[in-house]
Amino acid sequence: MILRVIIKVYFSCLLVNRQWCRNAVPLLWSDIEIHGNKQLLRVCLSVLNAEEKALLKPFEIILPNNPNRYLNILHILRLFTLVQLMGLENAQSLAEFLYKNTALSFLNISHNQLHSETLKILVEALCKNTTITSLSLDYNQLNSDEAKSLAEALYENNTITSLNICNNQIGSDGGKALAKALYENTTLTSLSLNYNKLYSEGGNALAEALCKNTTLTSLSLGDNSISPEGGKVLARALYKNTTLTHLYLANNQLGTEGGKALAEVFHKNTTLTHLYLGSNELGIEIGSAFAKALYYNTTLISLNLIYNKLNSKVVKTLAEALHNNITLKSLWLGGNNIDYTTSNEIRKFLIWNKQIF
After folding, report:
1. Which residues contact 147 (CB under 8 A, 6 or more apart)?
2. Three-class SS state of 232
3. Is there a contact between 330 and 303 (Cβ–Cβ < 8 Å)?
4. The dihedral sign for the CA sequence 65, 67, 71, 73
5. How far is Cα 313 from Cα 14, in angstroms, rounded to an integer?
6. Is residue 298 included in any domain, yes or no?
7. What PANTHER family is this protein classified in (predicted)?
8. Model pTM?
9. Which domain holds residue 59?
10. What is the pLDDT of residues 65-114, one digit of tens each?
11. 218 has which bridge partners?
12. Where does 223-325 show beta strands of DSSP type E?
């Protein structure tokens, strides 16, 4: 069962060292139908030495006779997931791999507790790599200085389109460094910074960057205590930004003021299609403000307002707005104070409307 869940991780283990390869190859081969990439396994088997091949005899594996007929694994691997990358030696090996690989597009180095020196080595490799388009570094305890190193890489790298740094500790300074990079970077389209203690200062810096950045389409800033002030700054940015389509702001203590500013944006913003505002203590007044906005907005496809202290009256108002709105496809209202009768009425309306799922 474990093998079925982390199959991609096992493929990555083959590249760490020979001991890992000895453990991973039998596991991969023991249930070949769950991944189906026999060519990749043959490539891995072809580089085993005599001692390692002997360990595979109990599994009755037919080893390849002509290793040269298969492509080098460094050139065919497109997705690489590595867990527990500890120490400079392993980081240097990974960096060397990044220099040589000509096909890798997705690199996942999450859950590794990367140190400054380790990250520095990887950043240097990323500055020269021209194939990676997606990089995931969540759960690495990265601090503000390490975020600054990543920001520097964004100045030079022109291929990464998706960057995930969720669940780290980059703080306000790290957020500001990344925001500064967004003024220059013209390739990044998705940036995820959930759970990073950005606070209003870091959130404000990123909001200001949105006023000038013309490539970012998705920004996730959930659980960063951005505060009402940060919500207002983001709202002002959305009046100017013409490319952002997805904005995730769940659990940011936006409150009434931040929520009101964001609701007013939708009278004029014509690009944002997905907005996530769950758990922000918006309250009844802001729920009504969003209902009013839905009468005018013609681009929003998904709106998430879960756990925001809305009541049945507000929810009815939102439902009424949908009589005029023909673009919204998804409206999330769970965790609010909605009575059974209202829930039933809305359910019937949604079935009739056939626009909301």
Report:
1. 165, 168, 170, 171, 173, 174, 175, 177, 178
2. helix
3. yes
4. positive
5. 58
6. no
7. F-BOX DOMAIN-CONTAINING PROTEIN-RELATED, LEUCINE RICH REPEAT FAMILY PROTEIN
8. 0.81
9. 1-77
10. 655 443 445 554 555 555 555 567 778 878 888 888 878 899 988 888 88
11. 190, 246
12. 246-248, 274-276, 302-304
